[in-house]
Amino acid sequence: MNLVVEASKLALRLALLVAFAALVSACGGEREDANQALPKSTETVPADQASGPKVTVTADKTHAVQPSDEITVTVTVDGFTLDAEKIEPNVGRYRVYLDDASGEDFLAESAAESVKVTIPDSITDGSHELRVVLHHNDGTPVEPLAQGDVWLIVYRL
Predict the structure, then answer these.
(1) Contacts of residue 122, Cβ cutoff 8 Å, sequence gap at least 6
(2) Whole-angstrom Cα distance, residue 91 to residue 146?
(3) CA distance 39 to 154
């Protein structure tokens, strides 16, 4: 009977190990040092936005992110000029949002190439999205929507 119980426990551990390996693989692979900077870059451009401005986002830390961490987000744009002063078409700034936040609920706003973003203390463990959305200097989002994102893995050490 003990042999059956031990085999069942071993099977469960093996299944958990396989699931963990799949999660690590989906998150970009294993790192020797989880706190080491891991630039992560994605470009989010739906087909209907192919002719509008494009945004590419990278972050200096994406894994083992902790509440109150300060992350440097770097933004590269194409078809848009980052300038906080001019009021012209395709000129403006960007806002950095966490997950589904929108409107005035942003973590940072800038026209610089990079900005430091402080992760809120209230963040939960798991996957979170830092989303960068281009805005005109009057505060309205660029139409069609121009955004890029980077995914963070938050867990408390």
Answers:
(1) 67
(2) 12
(3) 15
